[in-house]
Design goal:
Pathway: One-carbon metabolism; tetrahydrofolate interconversion. By secondary structure, the chain is α/β, with parallel strands linked by helices. It has helices at 4-7, 9-24, 37-43, 65-81, 98-109, 140-144, 161-171, 189-199, 211-215, 257-269, 275-287, 291-313, 339-348, 375-379, 384-407, 412-421, and strands at 26-27, 54-55, 58-59, 89-92, 115-117, 146-147, 152-153, 158-159, 175-178, 202-206, 228-232, 243-248, 317-318, 327-331, 351-352, 354-356, 369-373. 43% of the residues lie in helices and 13% in strands. The structure holds pyridoxal-5'-phosphate.
């Protein structure tokens, strides 16, 4: 059997280029990370060849004795990594990713057109929490369920729990979703539990962004208050791309979550599990119980604080004023520039982050902020010192963007950006690659 170099040099060449890009750039996208060689070995193994519809011991195909062993090990490690008792909590490790995991929960516990409330996307929530615009139901969640998003208090940048409570009392959702893609603070789980109980709803936390921080106990524990917790596995947790759903074993609101969720995953929405991913996830979850992993997560948070405090020193406005976790959200509107241009300019200098809407934004395509995360570069050994320097680099990019706006206006800006992309541009020697 031929290896990739010989069998397909085209794909090999693309992989090599991507590897070099990952290696050379400052990776600051808050949802990305560098998984370990051990995880990648498991993901690239023969486990990908096997069909295993069903759960351990209850499969629709033969030859699953080792896959059963693997999935059971992965489930045990998942519960241990999040400090959960096997009598109180169960877990399904088959979801293909975060969005499918969330949709599986909704179809497990809701009927079509039941009401849900999640954090609005322009205020930091995720598409799969029910995003819709006044014109269009954008996500499948808002097409199949009735969504009424809650929002931040724009004056503090924190979730407006009072408004959530008032709206929930009127809207009477069956499910309230905590969790976000761009929220630099912890959720107030006790408050959300109180609101949820008062209206007779389920409380779910989508901890995708912070699951590594939860496993290491460096942020508040959602399991103390929630009925269901979903996560991706490839962000701060640093595993392969995938998803998990944790559920309470005792019935909640008369629903047996274990069978409802397991059936929603298969046969409800998925077929054969991705056993290679489950193998990689098991490896990741072993590591997630180590002292080294806890130290890493502590460093992720310290690095983010160092970044935030240097940005504040440099005069930037941060949504909520700072960060308790792995990301900061910078509001660039006071500087008269937008996040889209800053993202582009920094990309040219191999600094990878993303434009992000900030509360009060008018446009999602040209939003007023940038999101900066610390997990990936912390994996590569960066400490507070390097993250302070990163704040200074970002500041340089912002200054260039401001200068560009002063130098040229309207359609001329495109020309200027072309110049920035050309080899003559002095910021970096890498743009001509
Ligand atoms: N939930 C949250 C909070 C996320 O931030 C994301 C992705 O960024 C997802 C779910 C979706 O995960 P996936 O891209 O794996 O579907």
């Amino acid at each position: 059997d031929r290896g990739l170099n010989e069998a397909d040099p085209d794909v090999r060449a693309i992989i090599n280029k991507e590897k070099e890009r990952q290696f050379k750039s400052l990776e600051l996208i808050a949802s990305e990370n560098f998984t370990s060689r051990a995880v990648m070995e498991a993901v690239g193994s023969c486990l990908t060849n096997k069909y295993s519809e069903g759960l351990p011991g209850k499969r629709y195909y033969g030859g699953n004795e080792y896959i059963d062993e693997l999935e059971t090990l992965c489930q045990k490690r998942a519960l241990a990594a999040f400090h959960l008792g096997e009598n109180e909590w169960g877990v399904n490790v088959q979801p293909l990713s975060g969005s499918p995991a969330n949709f599986e929960v909704y179809t497990a516990i809701l009927n079509p057109h039941d009401r849900i409330m999640g954090l609005d996307l322009p205020h930091g929530g995720h598409l799969s929490h029910g995003f819709m615009t006044p014109k269009r139901r954008v996500s499948g969640t808002s097409i199949y369920f009735e969504s009424m998003p809650y929002r931040l208090d724009e004056s503090t940048g924190l979730v407006d729990y009072d408004m959530l409570e008032k709206t929930a009392t009127l809207f009477r959702p069956k499910l309230i979703i905590a969790g976000a893609s761009a929220y630099p603070r912890d959720f107030d789980y006790p408050r959300m539990r109180k609101i949820t109980d008062a209206v007779g709803a389920f409380l779910m936390m989508d901890m995708a962004h912070i699951s590594g921080l939860v496993a290491a106990s460096v942020v508040a524990d959602p399991f103390e208050y929630c009925d269901i917790v979903t996560t991706t596995t490839h962000k701060s947790l640093r595993g392969p791309r995938g998803g998990m759903i944790f559920f309470k074993k005792d019935p909640v609101l008369g629903v047996d979550l274990e069978s409802a969720i397991n059936n929603a995953v298969f046969p409800g929405l998925q077929g054969g599990p991705h056993n290679h991913t489950i193998g990689g996830l098991a490896v990741c979850l072993k590591h997630a119980q180590s002292p080294e992993f806890k130290a890493y997560q502590n460093q992720v948070v310290s690095n983010c604080r160092a970044l935030a405090s240097r940005l504040v020193e440099l005069g930037y406005t941060l949504v909520s004023g700072g960060s308790d976790n792995h990301l900061v959200l910078v509001d660039l509107r006071p500087l008269g520039i937008d996040g889209a241009r800053v993202e582009k300019i920094l990309d040219m200098a191999s600094i990878t982050l993303n434009k992000n809407s900030v509360p009060g934004d008018k446009s999602a395509l040209v939003p007023g902020g940038i999101r900066i995360g610390s997990p990936a570069m912390t994996t590569r050994g960066f400490t507070e010192r390097e993250f302070t320097a990163i704040a200074d680099f970002i500041h340089e990019g912002v200054k260039i963007t401001i200068d560009a706006k002063g130098l040229v206006s309207g359609s001329k800006l495109q020309e200027f950006l072309k110049f920035v992309a050309s080899p003559d541009f002095p910021l970096t020697d890498k743009v001509s690659d």
